[in-house]
Amino acid sequence: MDKLPKEITLVVDDLCRKGDHFAGLEQYDxxxxxxxxxxxxxxxxxxxxxxxTWILMSAGDAHFRMKEYxxxxxxxxxxxxxxxxxxxxxxxxxxxxxxxxxxxxxxAANVLEEAFRVGGEDLFADEDAKYLGFVKTQLKxxxxxxxxxxxxxxxxx
Length: 157
Description:
By secondary structure, the chain is an all-alpha fold. The protein folds into two domains: 1-87, Serine Threonine Protein Phosphatase 5, Tetratricopeptide repeat, CATH 1.25.40.10; 89-144, no CATH class. The chain contains seven helices and no strands. The chain has helices at 6-24, 28-41, 50-65, 69-80, 89-101, 105-119, 129-139. α2 (28-41) runs antiparallel to α3. The model is unreliable at 143-157 (pLDDT under 50).
């Protein structure tokens, strides 16, 4: 994989920092605008650039925080297919949360299991407790439980 040209990298990084700043202020529309500008600078095919993964993930996170779960899930599914996306536990966490909010229980369970497997319980620390509770229920983790390895212990529907 080639490296993104330095002049593009500098501008994309700056736009993403600005997007992250806006997201930190809960100004998600402004954040999405900056992420969109960064996305537009990436040369085709975009799926060759790790920066594309981060842009999609950041935009997906902004949509999640705006409770726009369909939009978020679409972006996050795409990000999984981009460089290093499938290895990112936060991406799995956020996608699984979107799927759970959309009522897609089986897919949510699979994706959140992966987030838990790779990122552990700490990954869920700053999230609503319902997400960790869902994973623990599905994996039957708790006092007196067996190992969390393996598939889910009961069907979700």
